[in-house]
């Protein structure tokens, strides 16, 4: 298997590959669970980093960029060597993309070395497609013009940011430094519908930093809560909420 493909996880998570590169890398994901997991983690990290830059650019930025286009000299094209192998096509970008992936992993504090269990290629491809679809929805919420964020401190020194975009009827929760739940337990998220809690999905118990697209529509919910539930989740909360956060209104 082409070892160069293992260095493209960061670029894939940021949609920075060409169509041909993306197709080849997605075929690689079908055989590599390690890259599938790393893409999932880097995608969540990219969404979390997006919160730091999710501001509306000033109107004069476009005009300034157009002015600078006419003053920056474009480098001449370089003719590719004939019959250049796939590995060579990727080599020029390898170090920059590897550095990007490494920086993202350090920032998130969640990417590391793991022991991977073999899965079928079809299963891995399904996971990759599901992760990509979720990342696109998550990024859409964060980039929505009406996205509003609420940030607060949680128990155990953790912090959380709740982002809602009513135009998409969706919300995202980003947790940082979350303590791992007790063995056999999981953090479950809930929409707060006028005091009635509606399940909004589970957090990954192995992650301390995670961006989660809440399951289901926001509708008339005023915020969300977090409880500790048995592995697999519960149809209704079985414990007092660890935190309650309201959606920002302005």
From TrEMBL:
Q: What is its main location?
A: membrane
Q: Locate the Anti-sigma-K factor RskA N-terminal domain: which residues?
A: 5-46
Alphabetically ordered keywords of this record: Cell membrane, Membrane, Transcription, Transcription regulation, Transmembrane, Transmembrane helix
The beginning of the lineage is: Bacteria, Bacillati, Actinomycetota, Actinomycetes, Kitasatosporales
Q: Which residues form the Anti-sigma K factor RskA C-terminal domain?
A: 100-241
Is Coiled coil there in the keyword field?
no
GO molecular function terms noted in the UniProt entry: sigma factor antagonist activity
Q: What is the name of the protein in this document? A: Regulator of SigK
Where in the cell is the protein located? Cell membrane; Membrane
Q: Which GO terms describe its biological process?
A: regulation of translation
List the GO cellular component terms: plasma membrane
Q: Which Pfam families match?
A: RskA_C (PF10099), RskA_N (PF22618)
Top-rank lineage group of the source organism: Bacteria
Q: How does it sit in the membrane?
A: Single-pass membrane protein
């Amino acid at each position: 298997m082409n070892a160069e493909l293992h260095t493209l996880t960061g670029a894939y998570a940021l949609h920075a590959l060409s169509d041909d590169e993306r197709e080849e890398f997605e075929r690689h994901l079908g055989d590599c669970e390690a890259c599938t997991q790393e893409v999932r983690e880097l995608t969540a990290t990219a969404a979390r980093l997006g919160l730091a830059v999710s501001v509306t650019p000033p109107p004069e930025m476009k005009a300034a960029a157009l002015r600078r286009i006419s003053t920056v000299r474009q480098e001449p094209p370089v003719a590719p060597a004939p019959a250049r192998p796939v590995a060579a096509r990727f080599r020029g970008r390898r170090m920059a993309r590897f550095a990007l992936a490494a920086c993202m992993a350090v920032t998130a504090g969640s990417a590391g070395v793991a022991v991977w269990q073999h899965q079928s290629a079809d299963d891995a491809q399904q996971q990759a497609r599901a992760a990509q679809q979720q990342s696109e929805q998550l990024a859409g919420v964060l980039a929505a013009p009406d996205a509003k964020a609420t940030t607060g401190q949680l128990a155990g020194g953790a912090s959380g940011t709740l982002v809602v975009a009513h135009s998409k009827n969706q919300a995202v929760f980003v947790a940082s430094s979350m303590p791992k739940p007790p063995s056999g337990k999981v953090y479950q998220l809930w929409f707060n519908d006028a005091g009635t809690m509606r399940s909004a999905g589970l957090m990954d118990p192995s992650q301390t930093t995670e961006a989660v697209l809440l399951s289901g529509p926001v509708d008339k919910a005023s915020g969300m809560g977090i409880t500790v539930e048995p592995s697999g989740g519960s149809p209704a909360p079985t414990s007092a909420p660890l935190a309650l956060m309201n959606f920002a209104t302005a």
